[in-house]
Amino acid sequence: MIRVVLPHHLRTLAQVEGEVGLEIQGVVTLCSILDALEVRYPVLRGTIRDHATQGRRPLLRFFACAEDLSLERPDTPLPEAVALGVEPFLIVGAIAGG
């Protein structure tokens, strides 16, 4: 079971509390996690990645095992600790200001 932590605004939109658990078959990648998340919570489609390009939305970042994975290729395998459910996959809302 993959553990996913969503930022508050996406938890509110998806009507979930705490971590989200996802079952993923095969290699666990950024793309496979986001695909599974959007299948389970269709309301999140287009909020994490762009519909057309499938690219990450500008004010979101991805972290796992204390590493920023935001610029990794979508098909890069994630750390084993994430695949085993030991560590969560974090989707973090970036803070912007002026």
Can you walk me through this structure?
It is a single chain. The protein has a single domain (2-93), classed as Ubiquitin-like (UB roll) (Roll). The chain contains three helices and five strands, in the order E-H-E-H-E-E-H-E. It has helices at 8-14, 30-40, 80-83; strands at residues 2-5, 20-22, 60-64, 67-68, 89-93. A five-stranded mixed sheet has the order 2-1-5-3-4, with helices on one face.
Tally of DSSP helical segments:
3
Q: Biggest sheet: strands, sense, closure?
A: 5 strands, mixed
Number of domains: 1
What is the CATH fold-level name?
Answer: Ubiquitin-like (UB roll)
C-alpha-based Rg, rounded: 13 Å
CATH class division: Alpha Beta
One letter per element, helices H and strands E, the order comes to EHEHEEHE
CATH superfamily: Beta-grasp domain
Which class of secondary structure composition applies to the elements?
alpha+beta
Name the descriptors.
98 residues, 22% helix, 5 strands, single chain, Ubiquitin-like (UB roll), alpha+beta, 3 helices, 19% strand, globular, five-stranded mixed sheet
Task: Summarize the SSE layout with pairings.
Elements: E1 2-5, H1 8-14, E2 20-22, H2 30-40, E3 60-64, E4 67-68, H3 80-83, E5 89-93
Parallel strand pairs: 1-5
Antiparallel strand pairs: 1-2, 3-4, 3-5
What is shown here, in short?
The protein is α+β, with helices and mostly antiparallel strands. Helix content is 22%, strand content 19%.
